Protein: Thyroid hormone responsive
Amino acid sequence: MQSAEAKFNKNSLLLTLRGYSSAVSDMEQTILLPSLLRDVPSDEAWDCEATEESCRDLYSNYLTLKAIRNTVESSLILLDDHKAKSHTALNKTLEPLLDTDPETLFRFHLRGLFSVMSDLTKKTQSLTVKYMDIIGVAY
Amino acid sequence: MQSAEAKFNKNSLLLTLRGYSSAVSDMEQTILLPSLLRDVPSDEAWDCEATEESCRDLYSNYLTLKAIRNTVESSLILLDDHKAKSHTALNKTLEPLLDTDPETLFRFHLRGLFSVMSDLTKKTQSLTVKYMDIIGVAY
Structure:
């Protein structure tokens, strides 16, 4: 069990999750006045409708990135969550595609998690840099 | 960083991955003669076409479960893999659904990973019990 733990500590899924958590901590420590981000339009591609809260301004982005970090760090909640919501609309839509092969499904979700965490880490770093711009400090 | 590590070690994604790895180790230690599983039809619902190798017999299931464990334990390979294959047919199909909101995407993949790992752990335990049946030992 000890050697299994050592393996997992080295694997990159853990490093990816930890990297995101670390980027959000940096963001929090840098952004001492989050309210300065209010009403600053987000030019970052969030790929979402302008009516959604997380797309409105940099302050909304800041809150969303923190909320996701909390989910990353307390994914015990998600485990219960998945039991209750195992048949969401999204899963329903994907059933014909994904129920075919558990190995493909595993690779698909692992790859997807890497991809989205990497994307969110970049967004967090970009938001931190924008705050520095706003307060006129070179990063 | 230390406290972040402590948090991740406790979170259930890690426990889920470790639980699967542990189930496969038990299976390997129990199944001393994997060849006894050859040509034993799999009545486990693998949700796949009978022509796929992993559905043919219990021996194929055994090999697949071990291969997935190896991927779980060395997901560094997958990180490179995702860069090269970020636009697979599967991702292409899902683009209109999933490009809308990174938080939803994150929750979807995390929940999906829990679900598939939980499923694979059960399959591994079930295969181990079947082997014990074959050799006539009560588990």
In short: Confidence is low (pLDDT under 50) at residues 82-87 of chain B. The two ends of chain B are 43 Å apart (CA to CA).
